[in-house]
Amino acid sequence: MLEIHLDEQDIDRQLRADVTLGLSATPKWLPPKWFYDARGSELFEDITRLPEYYPTRSERAILAARAAEIAAITEAKTLVELGSGSSEKTRLLLDALLSRGTLGAFVPLDVSRTALAEAVAGLTTDYPTLSVHGVVGDMTDDLRHIPDGDNRLVAFLGGTIGNLIPAERAAFLTGLRAVLGEGEWLLLGTDLVKDPAIIVPAYDDAAGVTAEFNKNVLRVVNARLDADFDVDAFTHVALWNAEEEWIEMRLRATTAQQVRINDLDLTVDFAAGEDLRTEISAKFRRPGLETELAAAGFTLRHFWTDPQGLFAVTLAQA
Ligand code: AVJ
Hints:
By secondary structure, the chain is of the alpha/beta class.
């Protein structure tokens, strides 16, 4: 079953608001959620298989090693997954919780109705005893639509929390804590601070897949808002912000140019070399994470990393 709290019209309104705000700002920016149309989602899947992109592999290794332990500790009855996408790593958790015998329901929440419908259909076939209840919604403002239940485990994997700036993270975690009862669980995937010589190539791969993924946001704006971005007139930039400990992805205008966004009746000027920021991907350290969780009312119970210490999965309790 699929429950829809976000329709095409809501999404269109959000896109218009984001593009109007971001392209009128100095410096210019666009939120990363607009990367993910069908092509962008495919490019992201390609990224997860790149030799340079360690987060997906590292997180999968942690979950494979710890899923049974997570099931034994939480004995969760419902697994909620935020930003579930293809739900591939989730199967590790579902299998462990089903073996443990506690799990009755899986609630994937995602903004993409098509991706979610596909995931729900596949899971319903593969897990006939499980109640699969998809929620189409925005994880930052539709958490109230997570169905009631007791002993729920909310998984937010992939390191996507790193796309939020610290103030947004605090608001998100506090909002999540507010919908959970005391004792319920959060399983959080976070990329870790490490040598930028490892991080930067993960966001600037030799094959140029991340560059295509980054530029895809311009194609999305062109297609959805009748704009005329010249995609080839921008270059992909990934830079490590050492102070904030986050990666910034930008699109740099190679020449001075004007872009017309017809549906917004907006004309935007770019200077030669001007950057448009398209994503931040924050990297974490255990102490900072523990502090952020505590500030939102969560207690860190376990912090697991892969053998190389690249990525972490944290189990926290409300
Ligand atoms: C899906 C948000 C976790 O930040 O690493 C991959 C997206 N951006 N390469 C990340 C992404 C560039 C990814 N997240």
